[in-house]
C-alpha cells in the first residue's frame, strides 16, 4: 500500500464523494447514517458484553450482591451508548465538515477532527470507569507513536526491551498500589491484579504476611485463579465468535491460547512468593517489598509479550503518581486534562486505523471492527482500493 500523507490524501481523496470514504453501503448521508447507528449499537453491545463478562469473573464473590449487578448493568448500557455514538456520529460530523468546505475532503477533517470532537462522549461513562478508558487509550496512543518511530528507523523495540519495561512498570505500579492500600477510595485502574494491603506491625496476628493461612495455599490460590482468568479470556475470544458451530470452535483451540493463562498465573504466583519470602525473612510487611516482587514477577511477560501491556504497566504507575500530584494541588483540577487527552488520543488512533494501518495498535482493529459491526473494514478497504487504483493510473 502506498504511504499515506497529507499530500497523497489531497491528490487522491480530496474530490471524492463522501459515499466512498464514509458510507459505501449507501449513497445518502442520512439514510446510510441510520444503518450505521443500528449496526454500531449491535456491535458495541457485543464488544462490551465480553469486556463486562471478564469484569464479572474478576469481581467474583462481590457479584453475589444485587447492587453490584444493577451497577454493572447500568455501566454496560452507558459503555454501549459510548461505543455507538462515537462510531456513528463521526460519519455525520465528517459529512458536515465536507459540505462546509465546499464538498471537499481534508486530511484532518476526514476522520481526525470528527473522532476528536466526539471523544466528548467519554462523559457518558461514570467517573469511576472514565479514568480506565482514558488510561487504555493513552496506552494505545503511546504504542502508536513507538510503532511510528520504529517504522521511521528512529528506534527498535525488542522483546527484551519490552520485558524490561514491563518489569520496571510492574515494580513501580505494585509499590504505588500498596501505598494506596489504606485509602477508602482507591484510584481506579485496569490492571491484572490488586495487591493486598500492607499488614500493620501492630496487627495481633503473628503472621507477618499480608494474608491469612499458609503461604503455600495463598500462592497456589492466586496462581490457579489468575491462570483460570487468563484461560477464560483467551477461550472467550476464540469460542464466542463461533458459537453457531461449537464443535469447530472447540477444535480451533490451540496451544498458543494457553500463553495468556501462563502469563497471568505466573505473574501473580511470583509476586506473592517474593512478598511472602521477604515478609518471613524480615518479620514484618512493607510496601517497599512490592518493588522487587513486581520486578521479578515481570519476567512472566515472556510467556505472552505485548507492547501494549508493557506500556500499560508504566502508564498505570504514572496515573497513580498523578493522583498524588492532584492531591498536592500540583496539577490543577479546574481543567479537564484527562478528558481532553482522551479526545486527542481517540481522534489520532481511529483515524490512524484507516489511514495508517501499518502502525496502528492491533487493539484498535478489533475495537473498530466489532463496534462498527464490520463497517470500518468496508471503509478501510475502500480507502486502500482507491489509493492503489489511482496510484497505478498516475
From TrEMBL:
Q: Which domain of life is it from?
A: Eukaryota
Gene Ontology cellular component annotations, sorted alphabetically: endomembrane system
Every Transmembrane protein 135 N-terminal domain range:
17-143
Q: Whose protein is this, by species?
A: Manduca sexta (Tobacco hawkmoth)
Keywords of this entry: Membrane, Transmembrane, Transmembrane helix
Name the InterPro entries for this protein.
Tmem135, TMEM135_N
Family affiliation: Belongs to the TMEM135 family.
Name of the protein in its database record: Transmembrane protein 135 N-terminal domain-containing protein
Annotated TM spans: 40-58, 107-124, 160-177, 223-240, 260-279, 286-303
- Compartment(s) of residence: Endomembrane system
Can the keyword Transit peptide be found in this entry's annotation? no
Q: How the protein sits in the membrane?
A: Multi-pass membrane protein
Amino acid at each position: 500500500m502506498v504511504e499515506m500523507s497529507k499530500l497523497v490524501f489531497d491528490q487522491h481523496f480530496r474530490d471524492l464523494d463522501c459515499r466512498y470514504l464514509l458510507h459505501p453501503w449507501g449513497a445518502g448521508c442520512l439514510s446510510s447514517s441510520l444503518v450505521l447507528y443500528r449496526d454500531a449499537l449491535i456491535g458495541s453491545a457485543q464488544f462490551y458484553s465480553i469486556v463486562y463478562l471478564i469484569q464479572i469473573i474478576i469481581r467474583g464473590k462481590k457479584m453475589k450482591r444485587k447492587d453490584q449487578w444493577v451497577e454493572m448493568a447500568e455501566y454496560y448500557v452507558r459503555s454501549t451508548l459510548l461505543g455507538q455514538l462515537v462510531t456513528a456520529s463521526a460519519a455525520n460530523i465528517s459529512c458536515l465538515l465536507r459540505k462546509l468546505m465546499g464538498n471537499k475532503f481534508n486530511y484532518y477533517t476526514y476522520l481526525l477532527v470528527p473522532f476528536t470532537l466526539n471523544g466528548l462522549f467519554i462523559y457518558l461513562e461514570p467517573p469511576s470507569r472514565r479514568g480506565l478508558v482514558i488510561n487504555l487509550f493513552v496506552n494505545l496512543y503511546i504504542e502508536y507513536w513507538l510503532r511510528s518511530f520504529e517504522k521511521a528507523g528512529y528506534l527498535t523495540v525488542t522483546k527484551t526491551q519490552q520485558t524490561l519495561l514491563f518489569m520496571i512498570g510492574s515494580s513501580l505500579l505494585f509499590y504505588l498500589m500498596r501505598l494506596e492500600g489504606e485509602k477508602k477510595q482507591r484510584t481506579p485502574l485496569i490492571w491484572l491484579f490488586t495487591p493486598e494491603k500492607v499488614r500493620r506491625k501492630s496487627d495481633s496476628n503473628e503472621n507477618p504476611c499480608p494474608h491469612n493461612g499458609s503461604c503455600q495455599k495463598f500462592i497456589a490460590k492466586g496462581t490457579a485463579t489468575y491462570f483460570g482468568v487468563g484461560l477464560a479470556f483467551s477461550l472467550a475470544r476464540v469460542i464466542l465468535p463461533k458459537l453457531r458451530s461449537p464443535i469447530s470452535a472447540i477444535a480451533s483451540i490451540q496451544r498458543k491460547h494457553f500463553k495468556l493463562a501462563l502469563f497471568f498465573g505466573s505473574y501473580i504466583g511470583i509476586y506473592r512468593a517474593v512478598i511472602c519470602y521477604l515478609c518471613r525473612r524480615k518479620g514484618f510487611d512493607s510496601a517497599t517489598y512490592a518493588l522487587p516482587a513486581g520486578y521479578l514477577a515481570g519476567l512472566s511477560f515472556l510467556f505472552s509479550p505485548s507492547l501494549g501491556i508493557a506500556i500499560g504497566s508504566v502508564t498505570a504507575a504514572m496515573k497513580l503518581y498523578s493522583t498524588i500530584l492532584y492531591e498536592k494541588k500540583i496539577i490543577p483540577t479546574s481543567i479537564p486534562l484527562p478528558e481532553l487527552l482522551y479526545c486527542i488520543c481517540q481522534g489520532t488512533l481511529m483515524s490512524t486505523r484507516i489511514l495508517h494501518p501499518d502502525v496502528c495498535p492491533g487493539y484498535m482493529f478489533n475495537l473498530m471492527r466489532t463496534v462498527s459491526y464490520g463497517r470500518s473494514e468496508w471503509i478501510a478497504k475502500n480507502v486502500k482500493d482507491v489509493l492503489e487504483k489511482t496510484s497505478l493510473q498516475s
